[in-house]
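This part of the workshop introduces the protein records we will be handling. A record pairs a protein's sequence with a compact description of its fold. As an example, a complete record with its sequence and its structure tokens follows.

_____
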Amino acid sequence: MRDSAVGVDDVTAAFDTRLTELVARRKEHSRAFSTPYAQLWNALERMALGGKKVRPRLLLDAYRALGGTDERAAVDAACAIELLHVALVIHDDVIDRDLVRRGEMNITGRFASEALLRGASRREAHAWGEASSLLAGDLMLTLAHSVLAGIDVDESRRRTVLDIFDETVFESAAGEHHDVWLSLQLESATSEDVLAMVDQKTAAYSFQAPLTLAAVLAGAPSRVVDELTVIARRIGVIYQLRDDVLGVFGDERETGKSTFGDLREGKETLLISYARSDAAWATVAPYFGDDEMGASEAESLRRVIEESGALLFVESLISERCDEVHRLIRESHLPTAMIHQLVDLVSTCDARTS
């Protein structure tokens, strides 16, 4: 146990050390198996130790703001949340058939390329790459659960933590499944459909899980946990709506990704759902979801989306949602430090450019 006077930098360092230790231990164990399996753990280590660490930082900051004092428990929960994120990202890339992540080949791309160089057919190489990714995601998911199950807290609290994790995975899978269904374009997606998918796919694991885990581990009263649950879901939707806007209208130099990746993929966002109701959509509909779509077709799609009023609609909704969540924060029974953190988080989600 450590008191709340422990510095933020100390806790961050403890998190980095613990995450490195968890993955390194399994990477070392993998050497007793096949060479490709050891290579898989090398790839997992790069993924787990890279990235922005948004979710674990959110959990650790909230834990401190809520008066938590058991640094080790919070650090382990933060590690589990990051490992869950890695698992979902890996599986998401398989579902989206992506070969690149964070500007470099992802696990599917890396293992498929290696197999091609060794003489495998393109079909065999891609199957090998996807199999490697699926197993890698499973390994990260299992490790996340194992870390949470081993947290040294009383049994009642551990059960609550594991229940939160279980529901988070369950709901995130529901959101991902719904997202894939919407992308098939077999029926018209309403704004309500898209918002429900976003709420399940993004808000549940990126915001609700870190905040509620922090609250439970800090011993916050149930009223605070309930308030954080509602607020977190609202913030998660704001985050994803902004992400969808940046995915089509953002600055590629800041976002680090193409502004027509979502359009090529046929991602059913609120922008698209709204734009479909405009008569001009029929002129660009064939481009949407086309793997061969070029820059000129993407620009035509962007123009129709903006002229339909979809961009203005989503921006207005983001603004309304920000006002709503600010009201919920003001009216909550959260400690002052937590209120300040959430206000800053809302502003960051709204104004981010990458």
Summary: The CA atoms of residues 245 and 311 lie 7 Å apart. The beta strands are 100-101, 104-105.
